[in-house]
Amino acid sequence: MSYSHQSMGSGSRSARGYEFGRTYVVRPKGKHQATIVWLHGLGDNGSSSSQLLESLPLPNIKWICPTAPSRPVSLLGGFPCTAWFDVGEISEDLHDDIEGLDASAAHIANLLSTEPTDVKVGIGGFSMGAAIALYSTTCYALGRYGTGHPYTINLRATVGLSGWLPGWRSLRSKIESSNEAARRAASIPVILAHGTSDDVVPYRFGETSAHSLAMAGFRQVMFKPHEGLGHYTVPREMDEVVHWLASRLGLEGSR
């Protein structure tokens, strides 16, 4: 494996005092052209993400794979596990944990803040990781976190697999209230993929997320349904991500 354990950002604390876990890095095998923070799902860690990403034929990407804090999770009856924010039952009435979302989005932004200025940066994730990736993307478009603090990272691409968009109901009105937010929303490419047989994050949430982004002015949204796929990734899905990233980021030496 060509990944190494890094302490960058590890050990920092969220607003509630939950400590973020270890960060893993997959270094580029070729010229460093892009850096992407990849976010794991509920109960997982950055190590498993790094092992998946290390095998992808994207030699010009540096992958940063942080580990979420361990915290009580309402969905699990308060049982603690690694989670980017608190979440209850995933439904149309899902309450957004803005404090937790902002803390994780800020942690991710901090990981990207020291990347070279000539390197394109992006965010991706699976399940809850996709949710925080999409939330970070809305922060980029709005130029601020949910609490109003400035968001300063210039994102160039977002990948969301089997996830959902927090705050989807109010996104359009927020984007339309600012010409600059509308410009940024239109500028960032987003790819979402979701299995039609997902029994953890139902397929309709992937569809709703893509539709909500498009209606809010995100003009470069691609939604890829995968017939019969459950709540996991498969090689054909990752192949689509590889080709999409190579094309959207203009990477050299990638298939």
TrEMBL record:
<dbReference type="InterPro" id="IPR029058">
    <property type="entry name" value="AB_hydrolase_fold"/>
</dbReference>
<dbReference type="GO" id="GO:0016787">
    <property type="term" value="F:hydrolase activity"/>
</dbReference>
<protein>
    <recommendedName>
        <fullName>Phospholipase/carboxylesterase/thioesterase domain-containing protein</fullName>
    </recommendedName>
</protein>
<dbReference type="Pfam" id="PF02230">
    <property type="entry name" value="Abhydrolase_2"/>
</dbReference>
<dbReference type="InterPro" id="IPR003140">
    <property type="entry name" value="PLipase/COase/thioEstase"/>
</dbReference>
<feature type="domain" description="Phospholipase/carboxylesterase/thioesterase">
    <location>
        <begin position="24"/>
        <end position="246"/>
    </location>
</feature>
